[in-house]
Please model this.
Amino acid sequence: MTNHFSFSNKPEPCPPFFQSAIVSEVLRPHQMGVIHYRGRWIAAMCHLPITLKPNTAVRVVHDYGDYLSVEPFMD
Model:
């Protein structure tokens, strides 16, 4: 029997109309924190070498299933 399913470890990109979130707990580089996203609190991580403080607006860039990857909005 052939396996017709293929599962990759690639994150799912988030649709642009759901990308905005607010940092609820400090996000330090490569460490878990919490954001408020779409009406709920969710674990998140920033892969950039910066610390994001609470109430900072961030953009959700990937959904890893059990946490989201975020980055600050760049001007």
